[in-house]
């Protein structure tokens, strides 16, 4: 279940795939409650789906998530970033980092 007061259109976050078009998954931060950058501005919202936690961050200030961190119940994590494809020039989700939390 996601918290609609923080994120809009977040249903797609659990199925992000490398190279997925930004048009297919664009989560809006409706009421961010977390300051991930430390600048005093709330720029992130959370969503819980089953045993998985998602943290969506707007690093560009346009009101939409461009970084998504997924933390699974087994301690695994993935960090997804929006980046521009060099080949097509379109914005896509890319798996930027992942691993196991210690």
Automatic annotation (TrEMBL):
Which intervals hold domain DUF6802?
A: 5-101
One short Pfam name that applies is DUF6802
The protein's matches in InterPro entries, at most eight in alphabetical order, are given as:
DUF6802
Tell me the domain of life: Bacteria
The entry's protein name is DUF6802 domain-containing protein
Taxonomic lineage from the root: Bacteria, Bacillati, Actinomycetota, Actinomycetes, Mycobacteriales
